What does this fold into?
Amino acid sequence: MQLFDDHKKLFGTAFLFFLILSIFVVILPALDIQRNNAPLPGGRALSEDAEKGRLVFIANGCVACHTQQVRSTEMDRTWGSRPSVAADYARVRRTDLWRNTATLMGTERTGPDLTNIGARQPADNWHLAHLFNPRIVVKESIMPAYPWMFEIKKTPSNSDKVVSVPEEFLEDPQTKVVATQEALYLVAYLQSLKQAPLPDGRPLPQFLVAPGASIKTATSDEPPAKGPDGAQLYATNCQSCHQPNGEGLKGAFPSLKGSKVVLDDNPELQATIIMNGYTGRVSEGYGPMPPVGVNNNLTPEEVTAIMNYERTSWGNNGKKAEVAAIEKFIQSLKDKQ
Ligand code: HEC
Ligand code: HEC
It folds into this structure.
């Protein structure tokens, strides 16, 4: 056959096949993937500090216990508002010439998933105390402490970020714990971890539900059959700072047990604090409280359930708040903004 005798024709034909195959098998799919998995418009690139914090996260092996992937199974619903999609990782680049891309998706979930930790726990005070010694804020925590990210000083300077650490966690109660730049970078990284909304029109991936189990879709806003459970809501939204016993942490988070705000017959300040956060006691050395209610989209029913749980727990004996009044009040707060 002439084709096999003429090397130009032979190589030409083979090359043409190669080109056509490459277009269909490599180039078109790559273009398609790039278009579909481009970084989400609602997400932001890491700030310079957060990027440095990412390297601290890698260096300290946090990925050994923490995932950053919300799987599409029902049990992962707590970790994000939707299952993760490939586009969530589109901004992840090679670490440097010598080190490969670190997606930090993780494979082991000894601790909670951190995909959305920036939304779940925005307070730097909390993160710093937790990194210095997790037992300060979570009594039963098995997470290791990272004391090398902190300095112990007798007289911190004005520019030092002092961490509120209860005395029993200090070797010498006369000293103060100061966060190093490394710790601040790491916290900036943790605070930056938030799920970006999917752009309009993109199909929202759903959590898979076991056959026969009750189906709750991510967009369903049906109220649950019985009223919300205040104790459960407190555990999810407030307990990490104010502690299960309501006593908070001296110097960091005020006690709700015996709190004037909680026991006040007028529930308005308490509801405002839950929705919009609080800075009324910053002069006493407390950090600001984040707007937990707004961040977590708490409904008036849920806010009232939390308020009444606080009013009747840990020896508190306050007058219960009414849903209707709180609903009206929260609406007036929103109108003001
Ligand atoms: C040996 C496993 C382990 C390692 C390593 C580890 N953690 Fe944890 N982490 C846990 C566990 C368990 C919890 C849950 C208890 C708690 O909150 O302390 C947790 C909780 C957390 C939380 C709070 C999550 C939430 O939803 O409230 C953050 C933030 C966190 N870890 C960050 C880190 C960072 C940053 C590192 C690395 C410097 C790290 N962890 C290393 C096990 C670990
Ligand atoms: C990230 C930590 C954090 C979380 C989570 C948090 N708080 Fe707070 N809370 C604080 C801090 C810090 C203050 C003091 C703020 C200041 O400086 O004025 C505070 C103050 C308060 C006060 C005022 C207490 C007083 O006597 O002055 C109330 C009431 C309160 N929080 C309720 C709640 C409720 C209810 C939730 C859950 C929906 C919650 N907090 C979640 C950190 C937190």
User: Anything to note?
Assistant: The pocket of heme C (ligand 1) is lined by residues 57, 60-62, 64-66, 110-112, 114, 117, 120-121, 134, 138, 141-144, 146, 186, 190, 240 (CB under 6 Å). The chain has a mean pLDDT of 90.
